[in-house]
Amino acid sequence: MSQVSDILKFNEKFVENKEYEAYLTSRFPNKKLLIITCMDTRLVELLPKAMNFKNGDVKIIKNAGAVISQPFGSVMRSVMVALYELSAEEVIVVGHYGCGMASLNADHMIQSIKERGISDEVLSTLENSGIKLTKWLRGFDSIQEGVIQTVELIKRHPLLPPGVPVHGMIMDPATGALELVSDGYTSI
Fold first, then answer.
1. Three-class secondary structure of residue 171 per DSSP
2. What chemistry does it catalyse, as a reaction equation (predicted)?
């Protein structure tokens, strides 16, 4: 049986047994927080537990490295939606130690892309269209750098409502310990 079949089979029983009732909440975050964090598997359950969040408490955006690289890309659009439409009042960027984005090697990834069947012609077309893959696939030198750059991008965004604190934290993915690296209250 495929993973999708397993998921659908489990889901059928989940709905039938009304297990969803324990998770009912509104679309507005109870704690009025937006969290931007990494998609690392170690954080799926650990991050909410370590930060004392339950279903409905916060909005969470996950991506590789908790990085916002485009000020007018889809992640930043989601930040704006959370702040303007979904009652979020604060933003916390949470990176983590041992992040794969800190060691991401664009050349190695491009080689993997080729090995998985993407032709040199496609890569060349992208490059000729102005998409610099080595820049786009670049990670960061340190987790602190990645978190602080994302915090600063949000804070400098022309559409950020005045007075919104933007914080930066780093989590230990083994223990859940948090370190504050940028206190958003000091800059508002």
1. strand
2. hydrogencarbonate + H(+) = CO2 + H2O
